[in-house]
Amino acid sequence: MQRLLQIFVLIGFLSGFSACSIVDDMLLTEEVGDFSRSVVALSAIITKEFSLAEEVNTIGFTDNLRFQLELGGNPDTDLKPLFNASDIAARQSLLSGLNGYVETLAAVASGKSLSSEYAELAGTAENLKLVSAESFNLTHSLSLLESNQLVNDLSLFDKLFILPERDKRLLPIVEKGGTALKKMAVLLYFDMGAVSDQSSKCSYTYPKNNLDADMSSLRLCKGGLRSIVSNAISFDTNIWKDKLSYMKAQGKDTATERNAAIERLVSIQKLGQSMDKLLNETQTTLIAMVKAHETLEVTLQDAGKSSSPPVSATVSSLLFHGKLRGLLETMATVQAALAPLSGSPTTSRDFKSMTFPQTASGESDDK
Q1: With the C-alpha atoms ordered 313, 319, 322, 326, is the resulting torsion angle positive or negative?
Q2: Region for 251 from its dihedrals, namely left if φ exceeds 0, alpha if ψ lies in -120 to 50, beta otherwise
Q3: Does residue 364 lie within any of the structural domains?
Q4: What is the DSSP letter of 361?
Q5: CB within 8 A of 366, min separation 6: which ones?
Q6: 260's torsion region: left (phi>0), alpha (psi -120 to 50) or beta?
Q7: Are the CB atoms for 335 and 361 separated by under 8 Å?
Q8: In terms of residue numbers, what domain contains 102?
Q9: What percent of the chain has pLDDT over 90?
Q10: How far apart are CA 297 and CA 174, in angstroms?
């Protein structure tokens, strides 16, 4: 109720402001700041998800190594990561560009000068120019031409970082930034992929997707990070199924050993379910992020016409924040499931410390 009250307070405040004073409004500045912090938090979660995938891969490698040695085999003892350094660097450049953009919005909205941050923003733009489609998991659902075009469109951020009016007006940056932000969101959405085909065309060609349409209309084929994690979970699951069969064949399936193996097998499968839920929710949060940006643009445009902004603008913002909170809760579930399997209670960064938008009373919505 407090947050809904703030919506109507925001509408009342904005209706009396002109285009030149819109960024000086305290509540709108807060809305932009909330959006910026939420995007940065989402970027941190996405970064962590790739680390979690590597942890799942390590668990499977370790379990397989132990079992193969138990069988008397001579297994490969070299752990091969799922992603190389250049793949991770490409994603970090992408997320840094996204963070640089929203932090620019927050700085402009609050009237701060970006002169001290220009070197970092320029460096981010240069790094984005070096990113190639080969570093992402896109070929499962996009042609080579589509993949290359989507990555090449990241150059749009270069123009945003050098806009001469960035220190004066928020609306021109948001209007130009919407296209670039959506391109990044679509790229990350495809990179997350799917655990199964979402189109009947997947068996013989790529789905026909309009990358400029609503993201919820996108249809993917099996592939991407979700498929990679699913395969890693299946690999480890099969190891423990084979181990149970081996124990029974060798007459070693005492109640204690059998129960321990069963508990491990079930725990791994539950981890896989939680991981896919996390990645799927990340995709829906990316969609909510794009919607929140679109309605932020509408808010600025309508305020510039001295008319009341639509309630949907702040509602979309609330939806984005809500998706993010749910994402953090799922992350906590994954961390709890992963800790005993990896043998470490501190396998992941604690995301509970992330800040959330404030209510009208000044209290955080995050509980």
Answers
A1: negative
A2: left
A3: no
A4: T
A5: 325, 354, 355, 356
A6: alpha
A7: no
A8: 2-352
A9: 49
A10: 6
Concatenate the DSSP letters of all residues of 97-160 into one string.
HHHHHHHHHHHHHTT---GGGHHHHHHHHHHHHT--GGGSS-TTTS-HHHHHHHHHGGGHHHHH
pLDDT at 5 over 50: no
| CB within 8 Å of 121: residues ≥ 6 apart | 100, 104, 114, 161
Instruction: List the one residue out of 182, 208, 197 whose CA is nearest residue 286.
Output: 182
Q: Give a yes or no: residue 219 inside a domain.
A: yes
Amino acid at position 161, single letter? F
Classify residue 360: in a domain, yes or no.
no
CA-based end-to-end distance of the chain? 15
Tens-place pLDDT, residues 172-201: 888 888 888 999 999 999 999 999 999 999
pLDDT digits (tens, 9 = 90+) for 295-328: 888 888 776 554 444 455 567 778 899 999 999 9
Q: Is 367 a domain residue?
A: no
> 106-138: per-residue pLDDT in tens?
888 887 766 666 666 767 777 888 888 888 889
The H or E element that residue 227 is part of is helix 224-249
pLDDT value at residue 162: 57
